[in-house]
Amino acid sequence: MSIYARIAGTGGYLPERILSNQDLERMVETSDQWITERTGIKKRHIAAEGEATCDLAEAASRRALEMAGRRADEIDLIVVATTTPDRIFPSTACLLQARLGAAAGCPAFDIQAVCTGFVYALGVADKFIRAGSARCALVVGAETFSRILDWSDRSTCVLFGDGAGAVILEASETPGILSTHLHADGRYESLLNVPYGVSEGHEHLEAGEAKVKMRGNEVFKIAVNTLGRIVDETLAENGMSKSDVDWLVPHQANIRIINATARKLSMPMERVVVTVDQHGNTSAASVPLALDVAVRDGRIRRGETVLMEAFGGGFTWGSAILKF
Ligand code: COA
């Protein structure tokens, strides 16, 4: 009998403070109209001073545990996808383990794949469960992306927001995650990056200059093509056709990218979960946040087929197809 990883609960958390397009009009040379037409974003949430990624991750994780009817001490694997960890170390996953009181001793680690981070984390946790190495995994995407934005750069600061999403994965004899597909191509590093870090450009990091840089238009074109390809790959590997997919839960970077992927799948927009208007791009948190919204409002039901996809810095990209 095969073992599958099945989503037993989802959770999300958004910081209280909302930054609207009108607020941004007062900060940089932009307009609500430009942001809405080019991206679909109307507002995003921003973490309060002193509120860190682990705080967001903890709130989302507690909600996922509650929905799953699980206690924290039953968790035997923690994977946190983040580009904005609280600290260089310990990992945010280790900080989260201590906060939750999750079984001391279970493996806990972070994954860095920027906006594809949650899909990567889900892929890794799925393999742990299929291999029999874990039975109850907490998988989180959490970001305080606002901390790595240059708030004077209108081409990036209007796009992103903060938040966290989490799922509890349980070992199950019924599916479950059917497959995950993870990819990267490091040759595109120059199109989307934070050009400084700990080991390179340390002085810029200390000067507060380690901020997101992006050639948006080029990223856009590659994202659309790549996401189209991964949708084909995912369906082909499972011998499925487009009509077998009940819900598309895409990475929420830009409504125009989401529309293009939906068209590729011949999916009506009523079957696509869209939160980009409300959340902006929350990087690794965007897919689990969108999933949580659609599960809690009753759209996604048990037994339905869900396709998730994401694209991000690296470049990285990936997908997961599952029976909810
Ligand atoms: N407000 C007003 N004007 C802006 C602006 C803003 N916030 N940001 C950029 N502009 C201007 C540019 O300066 C440019 O002006 P110019 O023509 O005078 O030079 C013009 O708008 C068009 O810029 P361009 O970058 O070509 O626009 P675009 O249609 O590609 O939209 C993005 C820009 C960023 C919205 C779009 O490229 C995008 O979403 N890219 C992908 C981003 C992404 O998904 N990144 C994360 C991957 S996970």
Q: In the residues, how many domains can be counted?
A: 2
**Overall average pLDDT:** 97
Which residues sit in consecutive blocks of at least 5 with pLDDT less than 50? none
Give the CATH H-level superfamily of the largest domain. Answer: Thiolase/Chalcone synthase
Give the count of helical stretches: 11
Helix-strand topology string: EEHHEHEHEHEHEEEHEHEHHHEE
CATH fold naming of the largest domain: Peroxisomal Thiolase, Chain A, domain 1
Radius of gyration: 18 Å
CATH architecture of the largest domain: 3-Layer(aba) Sandwich
Largest sheet: 5 strands, mixed
Helicity level, as a percent range? 25-40%
Give the N-to-C terminal Cα separation: 19 Å
Catalytic activity: malonyl-[ACP] + acetyl-CoA + H(+) = 3-oxobutanoyl-[ACP] + CO2 + CoA
GO biological process, one term: fatty acid biosynthetic process
Active site: 115, 251, 281
Keywords: Acyltransferase, Cytoplasm, Fatty acid biosynthesis, Fatty acid metabolism, Lipid biosynthesis, Lipid metabolism, Multifunctional enzyme, Transferase
Give an overview of the whole structure.
By secondary structure, this protein is an alpha/beta fold. It folds into 2 domains: 4-173, Thiolase/Chalcone synthase (Peroxisomal Thiolase, Chain A, domain 1), CATH 3.40.47.10; 179-323, 3-Layer(aba) Sandwich (Peroxisomal Thiolase, Chain A, domain 1), CATH 3.40.47. The protein has helices at residues 21-25, 32-39, 53-68, 92-100, 117-130, 154-157, 202-206, 216-237, 255-264, 276-279, 286-296, and strands spanning 4-13, 17-20, 43-46, 77-81, 108-111, 136-143, 163-172, 177-184, 192-193, 213-214, 247-250, 305-312, 316-323. It has a 5-stranded mixed beta sheet, sandwiched between helices. Strands 8-13-12-11 form a 4-stranded mixed beta sheet, sandwiched between helices. Strands 2-3 form a two-stranded antiparallel sheet. α3 crosses α4 and α8 packs parallel to α9. The longest helix has 22 residues, at 216-237. The two termini are 19 Å apart. The mean pLDDT is 97.
